[in-house]
Amino acid sequence: MTSKVVYLGDLRTECTHIQSGTKIITDAPLDNQGKGEAFSPTDLLATSLASCMMTIMGIYCKNHGINFDSCTAEIEKIMGVNPRKVEKIIVHMDFTGNKWDSSTLEKVIIAGKTCPVAKTIEDSVQIEFNF
Hints:
Blueprint (H helix, E strand, L loop, with lengths): L2 E7 L2 E6 L5 E5 L13 H23 L8 E9 L4 E10 L7 H12 L2 H6 L4 E5 L1
Parallel strand pairs: 5-6
Antiparallel strand pairs: 1-2, 2-3, 4-5
Helix pairs in contact: 1-2
């Protein structure tokens, strides 16, 4: 098993990572009857894209002897209606602090775009990248 999810009531869940015991609380968003006091499940989906990309970029850099000193991302999640679903994810990624030439930057970005989360959602969610 990967995780265990327990409904806490009041539109909240507690998600536990089995191997580490790490917990995440989710809450429904304000625009869907929640309090918006924690990540919503769809927030986690959008956020996991950037996290997965950075992980794959880190692996690529490690395997190619490239220093990966800095990366931040800001995520925009755009919801659709009928059906209510994540329609678009915009990833704004900043590599300031890395001493890469343009060729290395391009290779790192390509690696990140092949992450498992991106590959899983690419046919159902529009993804926009800004680097």
